[in-house]
Structures are given as structure tokens and as C-alpha cells.
Design a protein that fits this description.
- The complex is a heterodimer of chains A (about 500) and B (about 240).
- Chain A has about 500 residues and is an all-alpha fold.
- Among the domains of chain A are: about 15-65 and about 350-485, no CATH class; about 80-215, no CATH class.
- In chain A, about 80% of the residues lie in helices and about 0% in strands.
- Chain A has a two-stranded antiparallel ribbon with strand order 1-2.
- The longest helix of chain A is centred in the first third of the chain and has 53 residues, at about 30-80.
- Chain B is α/β, with parallel strands linked by helices and about 240 residues long.
- Chain B is about 35% helix and about 30% strand.
- In chain B, the strands form three sheets. A six-stranded mixed beta sheet of chain B has the order 6-7-8-3-9-10, sandwiched between helices. Chain B has a four-stranded antiparallel beta sheet with strand order 2-1-4-5, with helices on one face.
- In chain B, helix 3 (about 105-120) runs parallel beside helix 5.
- The radius of gyration of chain B is 18 Å and the shape is globular.
- The chains are: A mainly alpha (about 500), B alpha/beta (about 240).
- At the A-B interface, helix 1 and helix 18 of A face helix 1, helix 2 and helix 3 of B.
Chain lengths: ~500, ~240
């Protein structure tokens, strides 16, 4: 006799839900804008950090390329004038490419094959990791662990079985985590011992090459020798075991000349009379005449000519053409700019832990995301509380728990999307601004468009995801609301 | 005569216990009542009498602590959440004292919400929605939002909405409680017409004497019990006092 058959309530399509939600958001624009602002802020923060880091990385790469020759010259002057240190050996072994020039030098000096270098290279990598671990320990922790030994002495001191047992015991008490497990560390110490002979051979081989290179230097400094390196000299170096390509030799010669000429120009500052005239000519105080001012002035044609003439009048004439002076000065000005950028990169870099981002950056981002999630959850909870009657009425009219839940998740998702887009744009601008302040023109020239676009994408997705996750709890509260709340009279 | 009429709602020793902190409150202490199809029943009682609780039980909005509610011989306690939603959507219409229209929807959209939940196609929903608005005399105001309407107009829209899926039962909680005398009359007229013309069972919690005057039966609730259940003709309704 019953005329009604109880069935399951139909499910509303996602499109329908979305349309309803958008209507609701339009009606409560102010409330929605609060959530949008919260998401926007967090996403802007994320995007600013991502953008800045990405541009920074790009600039870093560019700067590295620009400073390559200079670093090469430094590297060559040091290896032509001083013996190979254990640190240099380890770093070169650990980071050198297999079959690369530096590795080939080692095979020549150590009289071994490329394959034989594989083991010391592995040892070097582990050695660097362990060294870093020990260096990061304070004196107070290091002393009980390894006594008076410091640096690489630690490894030789621990080869002894008793010493190692003592070390392990002390380590167990501290609860410190080494980069290698105990067994691995023990194995490393043995490997290190075993490859000791080969490493010593390489260092001694380099030492012999160095002694022989005295003839190549012929009483000149390494820098001077490099500035005059020609084909016979290059071949002589190769005979000694060094690997220098013709191209590298050209680059070294150029750069060494630049460096020498810059030094010669800098030495002009020792000429007091010239300094005084310079101060008068450029209207600055004599004590303000420094290398920077000198190179800035010499960067122009007239400045370079004036400098040469004045030097000739007041002291020993400089044997350089005006054109060369200008060129060198300009090189130095550019170098200074790059050096400033390098220091900016260094100060902003920190240790990279994940995808090239420092732990500080990751930490800040994580915290900002967390704050954002709490903010959204709070805003959504308030929104739910304000709409108790509306939700309950909807349930009286036949809304299922699922519909209410979807409704709020959608709402938060839409707001997250809006906030994400706004935040990503603001963040991009902030990131650009910051990197331009830090790196100047280099930032403009090295904008990683693709990476920035994907960073924006990631930021927006992060905003939406965050909003959706943060809305789960408030949406559950709403869905579980008893429909009888609709009867409540406020 | 009434004995032969089919029963739409039957309650069996309906009890409800609320836990308020440490103390337990007996909102309903066992209500047994049969409400007939097509009946107009008014429920009266002071606040705190259990009137609202009774309403929630009968409307499938809350589960009883003990006892049973049958709506058309279906035990409400046996239904899961989704079936309850279906029941509320299709078989029961709710009218609230505060109208509870959705603020950001037009009158027509409000009326069609339950149809959307019932899966009625949009075109049909619009047609039916306009008919319902016509029935309550608001056909020309279909595009107005609740804030643009008077209280009486809002309540009329709410009645149209409650009738969206042709329910056989209408639950009204103080439908004229927020309205003045004249607008209250309009609402009464519409409810009476629904009852007599469409045969909708109406259960109405009210203090409004004119509404009580229209009822078939009147039920007094006090302290969670039925104090008195009487036919309209056995009760004298006077302005100012009901005895």
C-alpha cells in the first residue's frame, strides 16, 4: 500500500556543483577574497623564492662561465709554483671526469692506468664526506673522539685497531651519525691505507714535474710564464706530464696578460704625483683615488691617453698603448662587476640539499605553506560556521553528505586557483625584482623562461593542492552537520 | 471516518535523550501517535516541551534514542544517509520560521534546488519551478533574490520550494512566526489550499490561532509527552486563549 519506494539519492554532476559553488563565491566575494589573499600570499612567497633561486642559478652558471679563464689562471699558477696538496689531490680525484685532462695527468705522474685511479677516486669521495663531517664537529666533540688528530691525520690515527675501537666507543656515546656506517668507515680506512702508495706517487710525480718546470719558468713567475706561453712551451709542459691543449694555452696566455697588465696599471697608484693630478682632473679627493676610480677613468679613450701621458711626465713611462690600457681597464671593470655578483650568489646560496635549493629556502617555504594551510582551514571553518543554516537547509532539501563535502572542497579549490594565479604573478615580480637588485643586468640576460614558467605552474598547483587539503576538515564538519540545525532560529 | 484513512506517520514509544554535559535531558518520553494521510495537524506546546524534537524525528532529521518512526510504513531508523537524503528530498517538504532561502539564488533557482538534487532535467525543473511560483503568486518575481523580497514573499518562495518534488508530507516550523498578521494570512491560505486541493499532509508547529483554526486535529506536547490530542471541532479557539 505504500506508494513510495526508498531509493538512493542521485549524485549531482561535478559541473553542477562547480556552477553552484561559483555562484556562492560571487555572492560572498569578500569572504572569498580573504581566502584568496591567504593563498596568494603563500604562493607569492613560494614563487618569489623559486624565481629568485632559478634566476640565481642561471646567473651563477653565466658568471661561472665568465670567470672560467680567471680561475684557470689561478689554478695553473698554483700548480706551477707549489706542490700538489692532499686536499687538491682528493678534490681532483673525487670530482674529475674519467678520462679528463686532470685524470690523465695523474696517470702520468703516478705511472698508472686510468682504471687504477678508480679506487683512489672512490676513496677521495668518501674521504671528503668524512672530512666534512669531522670539520663540522666542534672542538668539544672532536677531542673525545679522535684526540689531537685533525684533518686527514684523523684517518691515519684511526688505522690502528685499538684507536678505532676507542673511536667507535666514543662515537656510540655521542649518538652522532657519520656519513658512512661503521663497517663502511672501517673499510674506507683500509682502502685509504691501500691506495696511499699510489697517491704518494702522484704527488711525487707532480713534484718532479714541478722541479723540471723550473727550467720552463726560467726565473719568471708562473703568471709571467703563462702570459708568454707559446707552442714549444706548451709541448714542454706536456712532456712534463701536464695536459694543456692549444686552445687552453691561448686562453691562459690572454688571461694572464690581462692580469699582468691590470697589476701594472694598479701599480700606478704608487705614483703620488699622478694620483694628485688624477684627483684634480676628476674633481675628487686624493685619498679617494683608488683602483676602481682609476679603471673607471681609464676605460675611456681620453682617460687612457691622459693616464699614459701623465705617467710619462711624472715617472717611468708605461710601455702600453692607449688602446691596450682602455681594453685592460674595461676588462677589470667588468671583472669587478662579476666579482660583486659572485659574492651576492655566495651570500644567497648556502648549502644545496634538494633540487639545488638550500635547506634554509626549503624550510622557509615549508613553513609558509603550513601557515597558509592553517589560514585556509581557518577561513573555511569560519565559512562553514557562518553557513550552518544554509548547509542544514540544503540537507533538508535532499543534499547528500558527499555533495556538501564536494561543495566545500570545490569552493576552496577555486579560491586556491585564484589565489595561486595572483600569487604566482606577484611572486614572479618579486623574484625578478630581487634578482635584479642582486645581479643587475646579468639577471635580465639570463632569465630562465622555461624554468620560471614551470615554477609558476608548480606554485599554482601547490596553491590549489594546499587549499583542497586544508578544506578537507572544514568540509567534513559541514558534511556531518545535522540537518535539524536548519530549524534553529538565530 | 478517520479510522479508515491510511496512516502516513506512525510513532511507537518515541524517546529522545540529550546528553547535556553531565546531565541527561529527556526531550521525548514516549510518544505514540498516528498521523493520517491528507491530515492537517497542528502541534502546540511551550518551548522546551519537546515539540521541535518531535518534529526532527518525524522529519527524518534526527534519530530517536528509543522507539520507532514509520513514514509510509518505512522504518526511518533502517535508512542509511543516502536513503535519508532521498526521503527528505522526495517525500517531505520543510518550511522554516526563518525561510532559509539560499541568499545567492533567485526565487526560481531556490525553488529548483530540490529538483536538482532529485535529478530532474533542467528544462522540466524550470517549468515546474515557474508553475510552483505561480501557485504561490510570485510568477513575476522569479528572478528576485531573497534580499529583494519581503518576508511574506520569501516564505511563499519557501513553500514553493518545499513542494518542488511533490512531497506527500509538509513539515512547517512556525511558518508565520516572523510575519505580520496580513502576510500570515496569505501563508495560511496557501497551506490550506495545498492541504485541501493536493491532499498534502501538513504537520505544523505553531502558536498562530488562525492556523490552529484551520487544522483537522491539534496536538499539545508538554514535557516530552502528548498532553492532549483533539479534533478541531472539540476545541474552542478564541483570540487570546485556546482551551
Amino acid at each position: 500500500m505504500s506508494d513510495f519506494q526508498i531509493r538512493e539519492q542521485v549524485k549531482l554532476s561535478a559541473r553542477r556543483c562547480a556552477a553552484l559553488v561559483l555562484d556562492g563565491i560571487r555572492f560572498r566575494l569578500f569572504r572569498a577574497s580573504v581566502t584568496v589573499a591567504v593563498v596568494g600570499l603563500a604562493v607569492a612567497f613560494l614563487m618569489a623564492i623559486l624565481g629568485d633561486s632559478l634566476i640565481g642559478r642561471q646567473v651563477e652558471g653565466a658568471v661561472r662561465e665568465l670567470t672560467g679563464p680567471r680561475r684557470s689562471v689561478l689554478f695553473w699558477t698554483s700548480r706551477l709554483s707549489s706542490p700538489l696538496s692532499e686536499q687538491d689531490l682528493a678534490v681532483t680525484l673525487a670530482r674529475g671526469k674519467e678520462g679528463g685532462a686532470r685524470r690523465r695527468e695523474f696517470t702520468r705522474w703516478g705511472k698508472c692506468s686510468e682504471e687504477e685511479l678508480a679506487e683512489p677516486a672512490g676513496v677521495a669521495r668518501r674521504e671528503l664526506a668524512c672530512l666534512e663531517f669531522f670539520e663540522n664537529l666542534g672542538e668539544g666533540k672532536l677531542r673525545p673522539l679522535v684526540g689531537r688528530a685533525r684533518g686527514r691525520e684523523i684517518f691515519s690515527a684511526l688505522v690502528d685497531d685499538d684507536a678505532f675501537a676507542g673511536f667507535l666507543e666514543a662515537l656510540g656515546n655521542t649518538g652522532l651519525q657519520m656519513p658512512l656506517s661503521r663497517d663502511e668507515f672501517r673499510e674506507f680506512l683500509r682502502d685509504r691505507e691501500r691506495t696511499e702508495a699510489l697517491r704518494r706517487r702522484i704527488v711525487e710525480g707532480h713534484g718532479r714535474a714541478l722541479a723540471a718546470a723550473g727550467e720552463f719558468l726560467g726565473g719568471r713567475t708562473a703568471l709571467e710564464a703563462l702570459s708568454e706561453i707559446d707552442e714549444p712551451a706548451r709541448q714542454r709542459l706536456n712532456e712534463l706530464g701536464f695536459v694543456v691543449t692549444a686552445e687552453e694555452a691561448d686562453m691562459l696566455r690572454n688571461e694572464a696578460r690581462n692580469t699582468l697588465d691590470i697589476m701594472r696599471l694598479t701599480r700606478l697608484l704608487g705614483n703620488t704625483q699622478l694620483k694628485q693630478r688624477f684627483a684634480i682632473r676628476y674633481g675628487i679627493k686624493a685619498e679617494d683615488v683608488n683602483a676602481n676610480a682609476l679603471f673607471e677613468a681609464a676605460g675611456s679613450d681620453s682617460g687612457a691617453r691622459w693616464l699614459l701621458e701623465t705617467q710619462a711626465e711624472t715617472g717611468e713611462p708605461l710601455e702600453m698603448t692607449a688602446e691596450r690600457v682602455r681594453e685592460v681597464a674595461q676588462t677589470q671593470v667588468a671583472r669587478n662587476k662579476i666579482a660583486r655578483m659572485e659574492s651576492a650568489i655566495e651570500s644567497s646560496a648556502g648549502k644545496k640539499v634538494w633540487l639545488g635549493f638550500s635547506s634554509r629556502v626549503l624550510w622557509l617555504t615549508a613553513v609558509s605553506m603550513l601557515v597558509c594551510a592553517v589560514g585556509i582551514a581557518n577561513a573555511m571553518l569560519m565559512s562553514v560556521t557562518e553557513r550552518f543554516v544554509e548547509i542544514a537547509t540544503m540537507k533538508c532539501l535532499g543534499a547528500t553528505d558527499g555533495f556538501i563535502m564536494t561543495n566545500f572542497i570545490f569552493e576552496s579549490g577555486f579560491q586556491g586557483l585564484a589565489g595561486g594565479v595572483v600569487g604566482a604573478v606577484i611572486g614572479l615580480l618579486l623574484g625578478l625584482l630581487r634578482s635584479i637588485l642582486n645581479y643587475g643586468l646579468q639577471a635580465w640576460m639570463n632569465l630562465p623562461f622555461g624554468a620560471l614558467a614551470s615554477a609558476m605552474g608548480i606554485s599554482i598547483v601547490a596553491g590549489v593542492t594546499l587549499s583542497v587539503i586544508a578544506a578537507v576538515y572544514p568540509a567534513r564538519v559541514a558534511a556531518k552537520l545535522a540537518p535539524m540545525e536548519a530549524m534553529r532560529v538565530e | 471516518m478517520t479510522k479508515e484513512r491510511p496512516v502516513i506517520i506512525r510513532t511507537r514509544s518515541l524517546k529522545k535523550l540529550y546528553q547535556l554535559g553531565e546531565t541527561e535531558v529527556q526531550a521525548l518520553r514516549g510518544i505514540d501517535v498516528e498521523i493520517y494521510r491528507g491530515e492537517f495537524l497542528c502541534v502546540m506546546g511551550p518551548s522546551g516541551s519537546g515539540k521541535s524534537t518531535f518534529f526532527n524525528m518525524v522529519g527524518g532529521l534526527d534519530a530517536p534514542s528509543a522507539g520507532r518512526v514509520f513514514i509510509d510504513e518505512v522504518d526511518v531508523a533502517q535508512l542509511n544517509a543516502v536513503e535519508l537524503a532521498f526521503l527528505r528530498c522526495q517525500k517531505i517538504g520543510y518550511i522554516f520560521q526563518t525561510y532559509n532561502l539560499v541568499h545567492y539564488m533567485t526565487a526560481l533557482e531556490n525553488v529548483t534546488v530540490p529538483m536538482a538534487f532529485a535529478g530532474v532535467p533542467d528544462d522540466e525543473a524550470m517549468d515546474r519551478g515557474m508553475d510552483l511560483l505561480g501557485m504561490v503568486g510570485l510568477k513575476d518575481r522569479w528572478f528576485h533574490k531573497p534580499i529583494e523580497m519581503s518576508g511574506g514573499q520569501q516564505q511563499r518562495t519557501a513553500i514553493a520550494r518545499s513542494m518542488a518534488n511533490n512531497p506527500s508530507l509538509l513539515l512547517c516550523d512556525e511558518p508565520t512566526g516572523n510575519l505580520d498578521f496580513k502576510t500570515g494570512d496569505e501563508i495560511h491560505g496557501i497551506l490550506k489550499r495545498l492541504n485541501s486541493e493536493r491532499g498534502v499532509t501538513i504537520i505544523c508547529a505553531t502558536h498562530d490561532h488562525r492556523l490552529i483554526d484551520m487544522a483537522d486535529r491539534i496536538m499539545w506536547v508538554r514535557d516530552g509527552m502528548i498532553e492532549r490530542l483533539a479534533q478541531r471541532k472539540d476545541v474552542t479557539v478564541e483570540t487570546g486563549a485556546v482551551e
